[in-house]
Amino acid sequence: MTAATGVSGAAERSTTAHVVWASALGTAIEWYDFLIYGTAAALVLNKLFFPSFDPFVGTLAAFSTYAVGFVARPIGGAIIGHYGDRLGRKTMLVATMIAMGLGTFLIGCLPTYSQIGVWAPILLVILRFIQGIGLGGEWSGAVVMVAEHAGNRRGFYGSLVQIGFPVGVAASTGIFGLMTQLPEADFLSWGWRVPFLISILLVGVGFIVRLKLAETPHFKEVVERKEVLAQPVWDVLRRDWRSFLLAVGITVSEVGLAYLLTVFTVVYATTKLGLPRQVILNAVVYAAIVEFATLPLAGWLSDIFGRKALYLAGGVFSVALAFPLFWFLDTKEPVLITLALVVTMTLTHALLFGPKAAFMPELFRTQVRYSGASLGANVAAAISGGFSPLIAAALLAWAGSYWPVSLYIIALSIITIVATLMAPETARNSLRS
């Protein structure tokens, strides 16, 4: 039975547009949940959960708990990817939303260090770990769901799912920007909790939308042919190890840039440059808003020119802009800072992240696609994403200047360029069965 004839009536009604909409909405909510922690770590968690430390050391400690979420992501990717390849894409997409929403809401309910002592940071780490488990399987499930519905326009439709990231950045940064307008005492007592608590409402909406999704025709075919694997994660490591390593390599620069541009720049601008929080938060929001257009454009271009062309361009621009980004930040001029972030996000992160939603699933067979995409994306995230703000902050403290952070960006970009050159071009091929 072919994919065309094997699709059920429910799957036929679940059009590509509906799948993309549901996946993008859910991904936006998940990214919002995950990213508000990064903004909170840069602005307030060091004061409330690590108050006995020097302010900068407290920031490093807060970023360490931030990194815990990324350590959890490969674990979540392995667990959720396993069941996503065995039980189906839809089932696990619903489960990840519950995990993320619960973890985020409970962070907003946590007592602080002054109230329960050392248990406050311990509970914070536990809930951050739960967040990481959820996100470890969410993004990969969403992009696999779209890729297996989208036909030969996987680059464009997949990039629409990626819009969830700038939506999450703009929403999380924007609401924190709003809360920082409160008097300092109110912000520290209850204002910082609001972004975490309202996530429960967003999760409820996403949960209902995703329940209406139908399973993908590709996974249905695997089930009908009785080709579901008992241990898909092990199969990725045993048979698809080359694709796995390439997936990690092509992702490390993009995921590192994502958190350096949206999290570390906040710390650099507020602590090193002494700028008002609102200046850098506004710049991050504007850069994220521009990605609403540049991400789909990058995905569309990757359908025309190939995934590798976009990735190579993004890698080269990442190298070229690693130093100019900080030159503009150091001007302390709000307009130039905003321009720097907008241009850098557009020419680096957007060119890499837009085609990623198609490139990553295309590297793996249907039987292991969820597991392979999850492991590739999340191992890279653990290596460069979660630790990038922490590494950058430590490099800044060591050198007293941005130059080692720029070299760090260049090193990550070179890894991605080399991996891209070694990867196959997948844009014009059918998904591997």
UniProtKB/TrEMBL annotation:
GO annotation, cellular component aspect: plasma membrane
Location of this chain's protein in the cell: Cell membrane
Domain Major facilitator superfamily (MFS) profile: 19-428
Main location: membrane
Keywords, in A-Z order: Cell membrane, Membrane, Transmembrane, Transmembrane helix, Transport
Transmembrane segments: 31-50, 56-80, 92-113, 119-144, 156-178, 190-211, 244-268, 280-302, 309-329, 335-354, 375-399, 405-423
SUPFAM superfamilies: MFS general substrate transporter
Protein's membrane topology: Multi-pass membrane protein
GO terms for MF: transmembrane transporter activity
Name of the protein: MHS family MFS transporter
Phylogenetic placement of the source organism: Bacteria, Pseudomonadati, Pseudomonadota, Alphaproteobacteria, Hyphomicrobiales
